[in-house]
Amino acid sequence: MSKENDFLVFVVEYYRNKKELSGKEVISLFNKYNIWDLAKKSYFLWHIESPDNFVQEIDYHVSS
Fold first, then answer.
1. For residue range 23-55, what is the model confidence (pLDDT) as tens digits?
2. How do residues 1-27 score in pLDDT, each as one tens digit?
3. Cα separation of 13 and 18, whole Å?
4. Cα distance between residue 44 and residue 4, in whole Å
5. For residues 25 and 36, what is the distance between their CA atoms, to the nearest angstrom?
6. What is the domain extent for residue 41?
7. How many alpha carbons lie under 13 Å from residue 56 in its C-beta half-sphere?
8. How far apart are CA 41 and CA 63, in angstroms?
9. How many domains, in total, are found in the chain?
10. For position 18, what pLDDT does the model report?
């Protein structure tokens, strides 16, 4: 698995724990709002920033 894919797993798990959602709920949310592409495009910044920053960015995209 690539480091980007490993990071996507981390994003899902971190977001799931932070929002107290099930894995299925997070996958559904990420599919609905295309968070996968956002995470891939933002990998460079997200993997060096605080995880709470990407949670805020995901929430922004979900609420838009």
1. 999 999 999 999 999 999 999 999 899 999 999
2. 688 889 999 999 999 999 999 999 999
3. 8
4. 9
5. 14
6. 3-63
7. 6
8. 19
9. 1
10. 97
